């Protein structure tokens, strides 16, 4: 392990992502995993509440409606109008939530 001094605060990337690092001054590796929660089973799902490894991860969800200028708000509103607020398509692609059904199609 390197004896390099750790910075006193998280990097700008961590601040931008809103990552809450609780033990930042502890030496070691941090692993950030991201993606759309499209499946109700699997290793990614296991990292979230109710999953096998949830206790080992700090989870956060990004809702596209609340994201800054990076999202197309008109398209999002159209999807909600077309599919409904609680449809699996909207849950996954807009809200960043896992689908309720194990048979989710993204189109």
Question: What's the SSE blueprint?
Answer:
Layout (H helix, E strand, L loop, with lengths): L11 H6 L25 H4 L26 H11 L4 H6 L14
Write up what this structure looks like.
- The protein is mostly helical and 107 residues long.
- 25% of the residues lie in helices and 0% in strands.
- The chain is built from 4 helices and no strands.
- The chain has helices at residues 12-17, 43-46, 73-83, 88-93.
- It is flat and about 45 Å long.
- The N and C termini lie far apart (46 Å).
- What structural class do helix, strand and pairing data support? mainly alpha
Largest sheet: none
H/E element string? HHHH
Stretches where pLDDT is under 50 for at least 5 consecutive residues are 1-22
* Number of DSSP E strands: 0
Global Rg: 17 Å
- Report mean pLDDT, rounded to a whole number: 76
How would you describe the shape?
Answer: flat
**Count of alpha and pi helical runs:** 4
Which strand-content bin applies to the residues? under 5%
What portion of residues is helical? 25-40%
Number of spatially distinct domains = 1
End-to-end separation:
46 Å
Write a short abstract of this structure.
This protein has about 110 residues and is mostly helical.
What key attributes describe this structure?
107 residues; single chain; mainly alpha
